[in-house]
């Protein structure tokens, strides 16, 4: 086992040193012989053992004696630790690739591949952009919400994504184009639910509601425009009216609908239903029994939709 560990370490050191490359070649020869149950012919293990003991004995004779007596056992111990490290590293890399986190879906624990936690950031009603996700919150579901009240693209597809997002949320704005491209690529359905986590009022939820009620065929063109450009412009009524016109929606009718008390009642009921899902911030994506909190990379959603091996094709 010492030969294996030495080969790995010396191979890395050999990148920077010619002398270490020669030792790495000897270690490789020793490894090949040991795995075929033959002794090392180069005496590599004894050579390296002598070098290590020579360094240790200058500091502690007792430690040198202990090392000499237990050299093989310690080699096995370090090999076990190395193997465990490799397994955990591979597992972390796989989870990061498939879920966006080294520790599994929506985990906010530290991940070396995503040190800033960018894949799990959300905007919340408290204006805190990064929040921990507790196990209880992983039971998020859509059981208490009437999804027919919300706009759905490709309603007859039989395979549907559900997205809770906010027009002003930078994380939602980052995720929405990814979801739209996946919907187009895989020809699946998309139900969009606007929830005002970064807005002082529910006026934008009313806006989305009214556009869908008055001209549902124009809703998705308008929705796409809302997630494009600078979000600072969304606070300008003239800019919003311009987007409505660009999408082919009658701005006057929409504004009249927004001012209608019946709209406020309907939207309030919708928001209460959305809150019943247990979501903690935007964006939150539901797909079958999976929930994705925060802006995941494209590959994470693609793998969830069509499987790991489909994504590799």
TrEMBL record:
Domain DSBA-like thioredoxin: 184-302
Organism superkingdom: Bacteria
Gene3D superfamilies: Glutaredoxin
Bilayer-spanning residue ranges: 74-97
Molecular function terms from GO: oxidoreductase activity
Keywords, in A-Z order: Membrane, Transmembrane, Transmembrane helix
Full protein name: DSBA-like thioredoxin domain-containing protein
Species of provenance: Leptolinea tardivitalis
């Amino acid at each position: 086992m010492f030969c294996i560990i030495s080969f790995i370490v010396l191979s890395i050191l050999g990148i920077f040193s010619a002398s270490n490359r020669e030792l790495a070649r000897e270690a490789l020869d020793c490894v090949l012989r040991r795995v075929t149950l033959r002794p090392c012919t180069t005496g590599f293990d004894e050579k390296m053992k002598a070098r290590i003991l020579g360094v240790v004995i200058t500091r502690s004779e007792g430690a040198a004696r202990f090392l000499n007596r237990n050299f093989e056992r310690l080699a096995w111990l370090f090999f076990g630790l190395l193997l465990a490290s490799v397994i955990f590293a591979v597992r972390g890399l796989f989870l990061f690739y498939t879920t966006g986190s080294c520790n599994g879906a929506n985990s906010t624990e530290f991940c070396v591949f995503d040190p800033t936690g960018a894949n799990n950031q959300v905007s919340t009603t408290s204006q805190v952009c990064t929040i921990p996700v507790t196990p209880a919150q992983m039971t998020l579901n859509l059981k208490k919400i009437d999804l027919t009240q919300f706009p759905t693209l490709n309603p007859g597809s039989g395979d549907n994504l559900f997205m809770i997002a906010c027009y002003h949320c930078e994380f939602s704005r980052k995720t929405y184009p990814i979801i739209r491209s996946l919907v187009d690529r895989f020809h699946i359905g998309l139900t969009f639910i606007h929830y005002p986590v970064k807005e002082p009022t529910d006026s934008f939820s009313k806006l989305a509601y009214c556009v869908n009620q008055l001209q549902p065929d124009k809703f998705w063109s308008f929705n796409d425009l809302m997630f494009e450009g600078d979000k600072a412009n969304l606070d300008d009524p003239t800019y919003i009216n311009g987007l409505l016109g660009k999408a082919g929606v009658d701005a006057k009718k929409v504004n009249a609908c927004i001012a209608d008390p019946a709209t406020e009642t309907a939207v309030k009921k919708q928001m209460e239903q959305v809150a019943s899902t247990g979501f903690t911030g935007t964006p939150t994506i539901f797909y079958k029994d999976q929930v994705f909190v925060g802006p995941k990379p494209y590959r994470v959603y693609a793998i969830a939709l069509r499987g790991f091996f489909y994504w590799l094709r």
